[in-house]
UniProtKB/TrEMBL annotation:
Domain of life, source organism: Bacteria
Gene Ontology annotations for the cellular component aspect, listed alphabetically: periplasmic space; plasma membrane
Name recorded for this polypeptide: Copper homeostasis periplasmic binding protein CopC
Gene: copC
Record family assignment: Belongs to the CopC family.
Keywords, alphabetical: Copper, Metal-binding, Periplasm, Signal
UniProt main location, coarse: periplasm
Signal peptide region: 1-19
Entries under InterPro entries matching the protein: CopC-like, CopC/D, CopC_dom, Cu-Rt/internalin_Ig-like, Ig_E-set
Domain annotation CopC: ranges: 26-119
GO biological process per UniProt: copper ion transport; response to copper ion
Compartment(s): Periplasm
Molecular function GO labels: copper ion binding
Lineage: Bacteria, Pseudomonadati, Pseudomonadota, Alphaproteobacteria, Caulobacterales
Amino acid sequence: MRYFNPAPFIAVAAVVAFAAGPAAAHARLVSATPAPDSTVAATRTLTLTFSERSVPAFSGFDVVNAAEEKIAIRTSVAEDGRTLTGALARPLAAGAYRVDWRIASSDGHRMTGSYTFTVR
């Protein structure tokens, strides 16, 4: 009777799983200005930086006030492909705001999220 040793197969599976780990990662928000949960002076520019390059046609963000109204914003993607910048027509008034972001990374994965900040 032959004995089957699964150890080589387990080792190969572990190496494949470990190597595939970073490739399976999704884009995540790594920094933002204004920062999440911060209180800031009136601002006309918001910047979000992600962990991966984005596909500009499927990436962006909205700024929503306490009355659930979207604030008009013009967004652009920096040359690095990781930074989204939003320009407002005028500074935000005092109050609470939510940023709803969406990003599609080059591997096709779409991620969404949100955070809040306050203008004093």
